[in-house]
């Protein structure tokens, strides 16, 4: 269709995707075989995709699959697989999350993870002229000390990491649990974001902590903010962007939050559309934009605004932004 072509040809930025969430079943199998490891049970004979129906059943597939990732080459190949796909979809700038604790907790060195991922971003710059920056996420279902140790391990690689985030299971793991870690990260010069997932039990309180106690520069998901006019104003005033993931939303809850996303967009909140875990939710950025524009009958001008928002809240210099918008 016309709108599909419009989405495809538009130069885009993606700000919310987890590299480990780009691990396609075919790549799991390939890496398992070359490392002489068993092929994880979630990977079927065919590449028919993973099976799960909410956040915890997703995470129960997501973590075990990572066991195949062992060497610098493995991490490189995973990032390269995403970056080539992103380039095909005309993404010219990407900020990509990674979960070091999911690897260091299995005995993989931090250096192995970061050097594999980083080398792929350099190659994408050289081969495609595409820029990509890494955001290190802490796993919120692990303790704050483990996050602090991870931050310390990352300090020698500061020039390769633009910011820090917080992901994994949000239940009973509020932002305040990581206040000290995020304060230290800010002191070290990292930009800050964190997941405030949709429809969490204490959604508004978590958003409040992220904005007021942690002082985040961005929020991942965060659409429950529509319920609180005061926080909504703070986000608009500070220009705090929200990185939304409609297909992911549609899998983890009944409602993909389209009405909230559209309202926020029209209220002038800097909302953006992203793929989250494209191999798992089975949609890269273009598919997410097609999904939401179809469901909400978005106009071309809405789609352009979503991309202006993405470049606008991207963690790049003002001068670099003017190259894109
Ligand atoms: N880690 C990777 N993907 C995630 C998601 N969708 N929610 C929470 N943590 C994640
Ligand atoms: Zn996410």
From TrEMBL:
One MF annotation (Gene Ontology) recorded for this entry: adenine deaminase activity
InterPro entries, per database record: A_deaminase_dom (IPR001365), ADE (IPR028892), Ado/ade_deaminase (IPR006330), Metal_Hydrolase (IPR032466)
Keywords from the named record: Cytoplasm, Hydrolase, Metal-binding, Nucleotide metabolism, Nucleus, Zinc
Enzyme Commission code: 3.5.4.2
Positions bound to substrate: 277
Keyword NADP among UniProt keywords: no
Gene Ontology cellular-component annotations: cytosol; nucleus
Domain of life, per lineage: Eukaryota
Cofactor entry: Zn(2+)
Reactions catalysed: adenine + H2O + H(+) = hypoxanthine + NH4(+)
Annotated site location: Important for catalytic activity: 221
Function: Catalyzes the hydrolytic deamination of adenine to hypoxanthine. Plays an important role in the purine salvage pathway and in nitrogen catabolism.
The protein's name in its UniProt record: Adenine deaminase
Naturally occurring in which organism (per UniProt): Endocarpon pusillum
């Amino acid at each position: 269709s016309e709108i599909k072509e419009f989405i495809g040809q538009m130069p885009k930025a993606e700000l919310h995707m987890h590299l480990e969430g780009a691990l396609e079943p075919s790549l799991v199998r390939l890496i398992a075989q070359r490392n002489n490891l068993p092929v994880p049970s979630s990977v079927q004979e065919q590449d028919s995709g993973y099976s799960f129906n909410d956040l915890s059943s997703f995470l129960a597939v997501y973590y075990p699959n990572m066991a195949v990732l062992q060497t610098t080459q493995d991490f490189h190949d995973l990032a390269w697989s995403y970056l080539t796909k992103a380039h095909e979809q005309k993404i010219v700038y990407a900020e990509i999350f990674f979960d070091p604790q999911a690897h260091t907790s299995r005995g993989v060195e931090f250096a192995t993870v970061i050097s594999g991922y980083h080398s792929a971003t350099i190659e994408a710059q050289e081969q495609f002229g595409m820029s990509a920056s890494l955001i290190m996420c802490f796993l919120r279902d692990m303790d704050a000390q483990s996050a602090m140790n991870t931050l310390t391990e990352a300090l020698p690689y500061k020039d390769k990491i633009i910011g820090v985030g917080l992901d994994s299971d949000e239940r009973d793991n509020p932002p305040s649990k990581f206040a000290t870690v995020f304060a230290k990260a800010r002191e070290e010069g990292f930009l800050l974001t964190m997941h405030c997932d949709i429809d969490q039990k204490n959604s508004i309180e978590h958003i409040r902590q992220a904005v007021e106690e942690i002082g985040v520069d961005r929020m991942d998901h965060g659409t429950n903010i529509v319920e609180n006019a005061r926080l909504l104003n703070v986000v608009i005033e500070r220009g705090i962007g929200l990185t939304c993931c409609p297909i992911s939303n549609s899998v983890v809850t009944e409602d993909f939050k389209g009405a909230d996303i559209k309202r926020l967009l029209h209220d002038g909140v800097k909302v953006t559309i992203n793929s989250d875990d494209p191999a798992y939710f089975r949609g890269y950025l273009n598919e997410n934009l097609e999904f939401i524009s179809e469901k909400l009958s978005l106009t071309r001008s809405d789609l352009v605004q979503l991309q202006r928002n993405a470049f606008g809240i991207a963690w790049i210099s003002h001068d670099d932004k003017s190259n894109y918008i």
